[in-house]
Amino acid sequence: MRSVTFIDNNDVTLLESGTAFFPALVAALDAAQYEVLFETYIFAEDDTGHTIRDALIRAAQRGVKVRVLVDWIGTEHRPCARLGEAFSETGVQYRVFNPWCRRGIARSHRKIVVVDRAVAFVGGININDDWHCDHADHHRLPAPRWDFTVQVRGPLVTQIHDEAQGQWLRAGHMRLRQRIALFRDMRRQPPMSCQNPARAAFVVRDNLRNRSTIQRAYLQALGRARESVLLATPYFAPGRKFRKALAHAARRGVRVTLLIGVGEFRIQDMVAHSFYPKLLADGINVVEYRKTQLHAKVAVVDDDWATVGSSNCDGLSLFLNQEANVVVLDQKFAATLRAHIEHGIADGVPIRAEEFKHIGWIRRASYGLAYMMYKLVMRIFAIGYA
């Protein structure tokens, strides 16, 4: 398992939801001169998707090498096919990650864009309308989906580029010798500098080289926490190590607050609810975000550690799917992200321990049953979940 390697001298800008992200993305694509690497989990057939699709096509028609990788389950089979048809005659190179689950059930849940090796975007925002729910029924949300991406400039972009390029190659047809060569090349660590105290790291999770890298980054930060932990996630169902790290931090006197999305998937809500009594007993503050769909996967620890990315705090993201986060060591960035999370907490509903004392045994049993089923599935498909 790789350690988290921080690189100095990066400019990292926080972008909140599609309102900030999509215009910045289109501007970068329209300024591209020679290369675009583009990964997303969902590439929707809506106005937002068409806008980004057209920007990618414009870049290809200018002679830019454009490579687009989408996930087969996230984007869905027929939209994947139609997107491929739209790209086929425009010069855009296009691949679908793991179609028909031929390589197992793991998904590429990453959202990464690298333009000219000069600017990169990494986060949780899919290519879809902020106002429409991103699961099956696509109903209109009461408020825009809440999510984040970071724009990165600086030496870290090289590492992001190399990982995105490797993912593109792995998604295609490669001989065993080529895969071994790629594996060796991707093991090389970038050089570290010590000129600027502001640092950032690019951390990914896969099922070969980085099985626990994202969780390790969280555990290290939680283990060093001294004052506060703010964590926002759409789905909360981490393994035992993660839950213990949160509890140990709270017992040391750290103010730990979890902002958890609810209302999207009932079974996922039930699994999260099964943890509430223990979390509350350990002194952890639990707040449910019910204003709209919470899709942000972000955290701030103390005054200088922050992360933004695609990884939820659940078994799928931490133990099965392919994910990508950026971790930033910078007080200004952490303060900016903290303010956004605190605003989300203010919009949320605090959960009180006394509320669970009066829950009927049927509901309590259903929460426990949901967790046992979830745990069984994770143990079958995701090595390391407990």
Automatic annotation (TrEMBL):
Record flagged with keyword Signal: no
Alphabetic keyword roster: Cell membrane, Lipid biosynthesis, Lipid metabolism, Membrane, Phospholipid biosynthesis, Phospholipid metabolism, Transferase
Membrane topology recorded in Swiss-Prot or TrEMBL: Peripheral membrane protein
SMART domains: PLDc (SM00155)
Active site annotation, chain numbering: 109, 111, 116, 295, 297, 302
Recorded superkingdom: Bacteria
Ranges for domain PLD phosphodiesterase: 104-131, 290-317
Pfam families: PLDc_2
Reactions accelerated catalytically: 2 a 1,2-diacyl-sn-glycero-3-phospho-(1'-sn-glycerol) = a cardiolipin + glycerol
Enzyme Commission number: 2.7.8.-
Top EC class of this enzyme: transferase
GO molecular function: transferase activity
Record localization: Cell membrane
Alphabetized Gene3D superfamilies for the sequence: Endonuclease Chain A (3.30.870.10)
UniProt xrefs under HAMAP family: Cardiolipin_synth_ClsB
Family: Belongs to the phospholipase D family. Cardiolipin synthase subfamily. ClsB sub-subfamily.
PANTHER family linked: CARDIOLIPIN SYNTHASE, PHOSPHOLIPASE D
Role of this protein: Catalyzes the phosphatidyl group transfer from one phosphatidylglycerol molecule to another to form cardiolipin (CL) (diphosphatidylglycerol) and glycerol.
Protein name: Cardiolipin synthase B
